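Incident log, support desk, overnight shift.

02:14 A customer reports that sequence design results differ from what the structure should imply. Their input is reproduced verbatim below. On-call engineer (initials T.W.) acknowledged and began investigating.
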């Protein structure tokens, strides 16, 4: 197969790294990579060439490509029938017009079998880690308990809202840095995971509960109880990291503007849900907002500042997915008839036809 790796337009990451390009080449696939595709992630064109890839402009790379890898969906001039493997939201009408077959990796199920392909988890883990590192850099105080001849500096207090993959990594990083960490999540199953990392789990006094892999939107009674509890906790916190998201919906509003007014001057909020609306009322995606001495940082893509490792993990996920796809296609060339839960979950369009419209 001819494989082409695109250059991302506004993302420092790259979908395939040189080590994974070599794995594709070792499997006798032709690998073409857009010139400078990996430069912002720390991978030079020379590294790709040494791995067996051919560097070329997008126009020639797309020509005759059987499979195209990207992180963000791009409106390029694809060949009809091209298999596009990407992770972000796609333009269905464009894909139909181009007669593409599209696999959306952001739809990979959160199962044990699919964990090696789970791009959301691998990227979220790095995002949670980097959020805490950025918070430690931005905050105007030390993180760990420090006993000096001049006196004792108490440990910083960190609150993580949303104990999914990103939240748990933020908790683990904060604990490593020596912070006193608390965490909140609507899912009762998160309690054991939070406590296993040495953090305190904050529970809302409500009869409404939820569980499962993803969070869901809670009822008004729960929201009122949650707000009451957070109003009590926020004034004591130095750093707040919010990661709460609901798949396919706007991020839940958790921290209202007037709640920030009660926080310490010099406190910091890192909102990792900024792209989907933000968990904080005053969050602005891609900007830092300051009110009453409290900074609210809304990263639009925090992975842009840790692209090397983010690309390495993404590429490994991509390779695992591709291996599954190829093995199943050898057994059943008609992709729509492949009986595999991972491929079924991620196949969005087949030859320009929406999957849910196929007979």
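02:41 Re-run completed on a clean worker. Output:
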């Amino acid at each position: 197969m001819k494989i082409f790796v695109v250059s991302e337009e506004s993302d420092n990451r790259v979908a395939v790294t040189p080590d994974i390009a070599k794995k594709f080449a070792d499997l006798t696939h032709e690998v073409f990579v857009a010139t400078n595709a990996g430069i912002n992630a720390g991978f030079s064109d020379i590294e790709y060439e040494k791995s067996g890839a051919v560097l070329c402009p997008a126009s020639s790379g797309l020509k005759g490509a059987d499979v195209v890898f990207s992180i963000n969906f791009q409106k390029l001039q694809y060949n009809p029938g091209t298999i596009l493997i990407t992770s972000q939201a796609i333009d269905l009408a464009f894909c139909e017009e181009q007669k593409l077959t599209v696999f959306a990796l952001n739809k990979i199920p959160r199962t044990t079998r699919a964990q090696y392909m789970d791009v959301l988890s691998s990227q979220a883990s790095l995002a949670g880690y980097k959020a805490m590192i950025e918070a430690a850099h931005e905050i105007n105080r030390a993180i760990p308990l420090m006993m000096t001849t001049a006196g004792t500096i108490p440990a910083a207090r960190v609150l993580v809202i949303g104990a999914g993959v990103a939240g748990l990594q933020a908790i683990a990083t904060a604990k490593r840095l020596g912070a006193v960490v608390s965490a909140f999540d609507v899912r009762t199953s998160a309690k054991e995971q939070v406590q296993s990392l040495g953090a305190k789990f904050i529970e809302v006094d409500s009869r409404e509960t939820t569980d499962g892999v993803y969070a869901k939107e809670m009822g008004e009674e729960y929201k009122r109880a949650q707000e009451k509890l957070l109003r009590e906790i926020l004034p004591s916190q130095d750093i707040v990291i919010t990661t709460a998201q609901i798949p396919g919906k706007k991020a839940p509003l958790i921290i209202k503007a007037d709640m920030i007014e009660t926080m310490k001057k010099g406190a910091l909020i890192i909102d990792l849900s900024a792209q989907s609306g933000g968990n904080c009322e005053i969050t602005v995606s891609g900007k830092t907002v300051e009110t009453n001495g409290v900074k609210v940082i809304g990263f639009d893509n925090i992975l842009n500042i840790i692209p090397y490792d983010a690309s390495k993990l993404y590429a490994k996920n991509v390779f695992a997915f591709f291996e599954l796809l190829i093995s199943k296609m050898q057994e059943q060339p008609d992709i729509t008839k492949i009986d595999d839960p991972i491929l079924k979950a991620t196949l969005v369009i087949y030859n320009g036809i929406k999957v849910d419209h196929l007979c």
